[in-house]
Amino acid sequence: MVYDPQKHHRRSIRLKGYDYSQQGAYFVTICTKDRQCFFGEVVDGRMVLNDAGNMINRWVMELPNKFSDIECDVSQVMPNHFHAIIINNGNPAGADPCVGPNNTSDASFSTNNSATELLGEHKGSPLYRVIQWFKTMTTNEYIRGVKNAGWPEFNGKLWQRNYWEHIIRDQKSYDRIAQYIISNPANWDKDQLNGVDKGPN
Fold it and tell me: Which residues have a Cβ under 8 Å from the Cβ of 56 and sit 6 or more positions away?
C-alpha cells in the first residue's frame, strides 16, 4: 500500500475518555513526516543507525530523567519511524511527574495544579506530554545536525503531527508486541508502508 496524504488524513487516534496519565504500558509508534528515512538503513535484516539514529536512541534514554514515573522498555529506531513500549509507573505522592531525579522542570512544560487535577494529570505523566517532549528534543538536535554536520534537511517538521499508541492490557499482548518490535528490522521489506506498520494484529 502506498501512502496517500489525502486518504491518510490527520485525525484524533486517542481512545476517547481514557486517562493516559494512569499506570500502565503503552505501545507507541512515531513516524517521520512524509515517511522520510533519516535514521539509517536496514542491512541484511539488521538496523544500522546513522548519527541521527543514534541521537534518537540517546533521547530515549533521557525519558526517565525527564519524567520520573516513565521508563522506556523495548524500543527500536527504524529508518523512518520509532517503536517503543513506554511504561508509566505512576507518580509518587507529591512528586512532579515532569521532573526527573536530577532535572528541573522546563517552563514550557510547567503545570497548573487546578487544570491538571481536572485532567487527572496529577496521577502521572500523560503519554501525550512524554511524546511531545521527545519530539521537541529530537527535532531540536536534528536541526543542529543539519546545520553543523550536514544531516539531510526535513520539510517543515521532522515528525508527523500525531502518533499511534496501543494500551497493553496483559502479558500475552506485551510479549507479542515486544517480539514485533525486536523483529521489526528483519521484517522491514514485508512491513506495510515500508516498515511503518503500526504493529502486530
Answer: 39, 49, 77, 82, 138
Poorest-pLDDT segment among 19-28, 33-42, 121-130: 121-130
CATH architecture of 24-183: 2-Layer Sandwich (3.30)
Cα–Cα distance between 123 and 200 in angstroms, integer?
A: 29
In the chain, where are the structural domains located? 24-183
Per-residue confidence band for 197, with pLDDT thresholds at 50, 70 and 90: low
* Segment holding 177, helix H or strand E: helix 171-183
Separation of alpha carbons 114 and 134, rounded Å: 25
pLDDT of residue 60: 94
In degrees to the nearest 10, what's the CA dihedral of 11, 31, 185, 62?
A: -120
Query: Where is 87: in which H helix or E strand?
Result: strand 81-88
What is the C-alpha to C-alpha distance for residues 9 and 70, in angstroms, rounded to an integer? Answer: 30
Cell numbers for 146, please give them: 543539519
State the pLDDT confidence band at 34, using cuts at 50, 70 and 90.
very high
Cell of 149: 554536520
Q: Look up residue 185 and give its amino acid.
A: P
Q: What is the CA angle 18-20-22, rounded to 5?
A: 100
